Amino acid sequence: MRVITICMGVTLFLSSVSLATDNPHFFRATNFLRPIEEPRIDRSWLMSLDAYASRGATTSARDGCGNRTDLLNMYGPQNMVKVGAGVPCKDPKNIIDANLLQLAQLPCRDCFGQLLFCGEFGLTEVNLIWTQHFSRGFFAQVHVPIYKTHLSDICFSDLSPCDSICPNKNNPEWRTFLCLFNQMLCRYDLCIDDIKHRGVGDVGIFLGWTFNYQETEVLDYIDTTVRIGVVSPTGHEADPDIVFDVPSGYDGHTGLFANFNGAIGIYDWLTGGMSADVLFFSDHTKCIRMKTDINQNGFIKLAKGDAKVDKGTIWSIYAYLLADHVVKGISLLGGYSFTTKRADNVTPCECRIFDPVVVCSDPIFGEWNQHVLHVLADYDFSSEYSRFGVRLGVFYNYQIGGKHVFETNMGGGILGIDFVLKF
Known about the structure:
Elements: H1 2-14, H2 34-37, E1 46-58, E2 60-62, E3 68-70, E4 78-79, H3 95-105, E5 114-133, E6 138-158, H4 172-179, H5 181-187, E7 195-200, E8 204-213, E9 221-231, E10 255-266, E11 270-281, E12 284-289, E13 304-310, E14 314-327, E15 330-341, E16 345-348, H6 356-360, E17 368-380, E18 388-403, E19 405-406, E20 410-420
Antiparallel strand pairs: 1-5, 1-20, 2-3, 2-19, 4-5, 5-6, 6-7, 6-8, 8-9, 9-10, 10-11, 11-14, 12-13, 13-16, 14-15, 15-17, 17-18, 18-20
Helix pairs in contact: 3-4, 4-5
């Protein structure tokens, strides 16, 4: 019977499906938050408070092929020749609109009329996690992410060829466009300024149940944890009039998740864990910028309107090894995670202006993914049966690959407090 139980536990462990309620985002390496990514210890009325503070900055991103590129070039160069194509309400008598019409009529040529944007992105992040255990393995958990972001030093370079073949960098319509560039942005209510945001991201609230099985002869233990809950849209939504604005959450979408993770222990000090996770989103209708021509590319789009956005599902897989209390209270962890977000399905409310096929061809609404290595070390000052304990640690999340993501590696410190309530 014990052998069957062990085999069932190992099978559950290897095929576990868990949510990374870290809230994965394209703008930084995925976190590994131990209170969420590892199974909980079944201890009645245990209350835990954990704070993960980290910082990262970058000037680079990864494009659709996974290659490093400038930060704001992850979707490729901005095609300005076709930026005005299909945009309604243009006035031929207006010098800016007349220039856009003239540009759209020029013959296509590689790199002509394309701008490469770059900048610097910085992020300070604090993840606060409150966990309250009840009896018989049940617990509640709240995850509050707090972000301070900045995007600065935004500039661009002209990729147009400078040879004698027309059109080239000296084309009069193109030269006029560059002179009128800032005026064009103002005419279409667009802004390219430094961006700073601070505040709470999308808060996660969930209930869970944990089970610790130690009646084994081969393994030290088999632990599993189940969570269900919601990620509420409390974070900052991207402003459609700010070209490179970055939302601090999931841009107004409510997330639903289910969680099942597991771990096994051997040799009285080594723990191995694996998990996979999924995060679904509700539809959300909002005002966004959309393509009006199939040849448009990049962040700058002149036309905006209401659209129903069916946000793509986020999937993740984790694997880690933990040397638990290997030297007194010191624990060391090494892990790997892969996160991918499926493409959004965008349905414009005004199909006479916006072709749904053209809109959904925008890589901004497409997939992204990233591979991350996690290292962590902490020291537990408490004993096994003490009612109160403190943990201190450090960690680093290093992105080793990805597509359509900022290359922002994050490092920081951990403070954890455990307290057993007595009734």
